[in-house]
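SAMPLE LOG
Freezer: B-3
Tube label: C17
Construct: single chain, 169 aa
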Amino acid sequence: MYGKLQQRRITENGENSTDLASAISVSDMARKQELPASKARGQYDTVLAILGGLVFDYPTIRETIMEAIMQESSVIQHFLQKGIEQGIEQGIEQGIEQGTRESLIEGILENLEVRFNVSNLQAVASTLEHVDNVQRLRQLRREALQTPSLEAFWQTLGMTVNTNDNGSP
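STRUCTURE (predicted):
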């Protein structure tokens, strides 16, 4: 199975160093310890594949190490679990931010509706949807509580839209 890899030497700075065959024999000795053979093989072969990827090209590694062995490896499972956890964490953060944005927009619309006795604020709502910055939405919520008129709020909101679209006030 390791014929191709045994013939190649790992080199550093042009000098020959330990070849992969020696690493494999060390791996074979380690396999004889406590871990069951199938689990140990998967772990050591995967470690060799990962480290071998630093020296050998990917197709050679892929031919040598079977995918089934890599799936059994605790190293691969560890990284897979870490990736899943990171994805869940990012999803939760995005969900919280989206919920915060929606809540702030609803608060702004409700403040304007109550203060100025208007019910159709669809244009304001669609404009607020383009404001991505949560901090800016918080400022607009305060502005909706303090603005003297709906027109004054529109002017403030127009500056917000211009800031987001053009990058200048």
